[in-house]
Amino acid sequence: MVRSVPLACVAVVVRFFFVALAGRDKVIMEPSVRRYHQASKHAPDRYAPGPGRLDWASQPDPFRYYQGTLREGLPLQPAVPDPPFAALWQPEAVAAQPMTVDALSCLLANSLGLAVWKAYGNNRWALRCHPSSGNLHPIEAYLIAADPFVGVHHYFARDHLLERRWQPERGEAWRRLWAPGHLLLALTLVHERETWKYGLRSYRYCQLNLGHAAAAIAFAAAALGWRCSLLWQAGDETIRRLSGLPHAADVEAEHPGLLLLLSNQAESRLPDTAALAAQMAVAPFLGKASRLTPETLPVWPGIEAVEKACHKAEEEVVLTAAKSDWPPLTFGNTTLSAAALLRGRRSGQSYDPGHVLPQAAFFRILDRLLPRLSLPPWALLPHTPLVHPLLLVHRVEGVVPGRYLLLRDPAQLATWQGLLPATASWQKIFSAPDHLPLYLLQEESCAEWAGVISCQQEIAADGFFSLGMLADFALGLQPGAWGYRALHWEAGILGQILYLAAEEEGVRGTGIGCFFDDLFHRWLGLQGDRLQTIYHFTIGMPIADQRILSLSPYAHLTERR
Ligand SMILES: Cc1cc2nc3c(=O)[nH]c(=O)nc-3n(C[C@H](O)[C@H](O)[C@H](O)COP(=O)(O)O)c2cc1C
pLDDT by residue (tens digit) across 120-143? Predict the structure, then answer.
C-alpha cells in the first residue's frame, strides 16, 4: 500500500511548472490576498492594525496539551551520536540512525523542544530551539507514524512528551501503509497566539514561523542522517484529518500548516495519505485540547479572509527544480556539535557596532543560502528560488558599505536587472567566491537607514549587515493564492539558515518581522508590486544582557523522570 515515490531526487512528487521565468511582470493576486498584504503593511505614520494594548491576562498559553490522553515521556538524554554541526552541511557525512524512541526524542528536542528557561525578577519564560516572533510560538506538531510510536501523537513541547491522540484499531493494516524508516510530522498554527500581540500582521508571522520550524526540523533530522522533505502536494484538509485538529467551539482553533516527511532511507517513500486518513475515520481521536486563554480574543476578519483565499487543496504542485550544482561549502573554525549549535541558537537582542565581520565569514554565511539539494534544508524547497536577500552592508572587512543583492538563482539575472532601477551598478564582488551571485547595486552608508526601515530597531543598524528578503510575487503566486504562504515559508527557511550560519561563525542573528514595507520599496526605487519585501534579518556581535539568568530547559522534569 506504500506509494513508491522516490524522493531522493526532490523534484519528483512535484512536476515542473514555474517554467517561464521572464516576461511574467503581471502579478495575478487574489483580491483578498492583495487587500490583506496591503493592509498588513507597516508605515512610519501608520502601523498595521493591532490590538492597541497588550492585555497580559489574556495572553495565550504557548503550550497546548490534550486532556485525557496517554502520555509517553521522551528520554531527556537520548543515546544517539551527536555529530559536529559542520557535518550536516557535507553530503553523506552523517550515518543514518535507526528510527528509535531515542532518535525521535533527539529530533524533537533539537528542533521544537525547549532550549533554555530565562529568568528576570519574578518573570520566567522558555525559549525554544526554533525562533518565533515575540517568542509567542504559534506552532503545534503532530507525529503520524507506525514506528517507534504507532498512530497519531501530539508533541507537548513544555514537558518533552507525546500525547497519544489516535491509535489504529487494526495495527497490521496501519503498518502495511508504511515503508520502514518513515514518519510524518504535521505542523499547525494557532493564530491567536500571534494576534494577541501583533493583530492583522500575524498571518504573515505565522507563515514565517512555519518556515523556521520546518528548517529547524530538517537540520535536526540531518544530525540523525535523516532526510526531511516538505510534501507540497498535501492539502489543508489532509493535514487537518491526519492531525485530528481540534474543532470544539470552546477552544482556540488550529489551522493546517505544513506536512513533512522524514526518512532514514536512501530512497524516501511517500505513504498514501488518503489511505491513512481513511483508517483514521474508523476510530475516534482522543483527548480534549487545552484552552489557551481565559478570554475570547478579537477576531481579525482580514486574517480569516486571507486564510480562506490561501486555502490549499490536495493537488499536484508543479515546480521548476532549483539549480543545485554549486561548489561544496567551505567552513570556518566551528567545532560545536550539532546539538550544541541547534540548542544554543539565540536571537541577538542588541549588537555592538564596534565590531567588523571578517570577509570570509560573510561569504560563507551567504553561500549557505544557495540551494544545494542534497543538503539540509533544501529537500523542503526543491524549486527555483523565489526569495532573494537585498543586503544593507555596514561593517564587513574589505566589503564597501552599500546595498547588495544575493540573486539565489543566476538564471533570473536579466529579469531582476529589468525590475530594479537602471541606476543599479550590478558589480560582481571580485573578492567573493566566483560562484557567489552577489552584486553591489550601490555604494552608500546605510546603517542608520537600516534601523529606520526596521521600525526604528537599532539591531538592524548596529549589526554587520541587515537585509530585506525580496519575494517575486509574480512567480510565487502562479500556482495559486496559497503561494503567498509558500513565499513566507521560503523566507522563514532562509531566516533559519541565517540564524545557524551566524552561530557557526561565533556571531548572532535576529529575525525582523517589523519593518516599513513600502518605505523600503521606495528606497530601492521599485515600481509596481511584483517584488515585495516579506522578512528582514540582521547579523552582528551580540551584547549579552547580564541581568537575565539562564536555567536548564528541562529542570522541571528531572524529578519526575
Ligand atoms: C518571524 C519573526 C519575526 C521576528 N521579528 C523580530 C523583530 O522585529 N525584532 C526583534 O528584536 N526580534 C524579532 N524576532 C526574534 C524573536 O523575538 C525571537 O525569536 C524570540 O524572542 C525568541 O528568542 P530566541 O530566538 O532567542 O529563541 C523575530 C522572530 C521571528 C521568527
Answer: 999 999 999 999 999 999 999 999
Q: 560: alpha, beta or left, given left = phi > 0 and alpha = psi -120 to 50? A: alpha
Q: DSSP character for 373? A: T
CA of 514 to the centre of ligand 1 (A): 10
Which ranges of 91-178 would DSSP assign to H, the alpha helix?
101-109, 171-175
Q: Which domains does the chain have, with CATH numbers?
A: 105-312 (3.40.109.10), 338-540 (3.40.109.10)
**In this structure, which residue's CA is closest to atom 21 in ligand 1?**
135
> Of the residues 512, 535, 543, which should be mutated to test ligand 1's pocket, given the most ligand atoms within 8 Å of the CB?
512
> Which residue minimizes the CA distance to atom 20 of ligand 1?
135
Q: Where are the beta strands (DSSP E) in 11-90?
A: 66-67, 70-73
pLDDT per residue over 183-236, tens digit each? 999 999 999 999 999 999 999 999 999 999 999 999 999 999 999 999 999 999
Which cell numbers hold the place of 205? Answer: 508571522
Task: Check if the beta carbon of residue 449 is closer than 8 Å to that of residue 523.
Answer: yes
pLDDT at residue number 319: 77
> How far is Cα 237 from Cα 235, in angstroms, rounded to an integer?
5
Question: Which protein residues touch ligand 1 with a CB less than 6 Å away?
Answer: 127, 131-135, 205, 208-209, 212, 346-347, 457, 459, 510-514
Report how far ligand 1's centroid is from the alpha carbon of 217 (Å).
Answer: 18
The per-residue pLDDT for range 442-487, each reduced to its tens digit, is: 999 999 999 999 999 999 999 999 999 999 999 999 999 999 999 9
Amino acid at 476: G
Q: Which pLDDT score is estimated for 12?
A: 33
**Residue 367 — φ and ψ, nearest 5°?**
-60, -30
Residues 227 and 260: beta-carbon distance below 8 Å: no
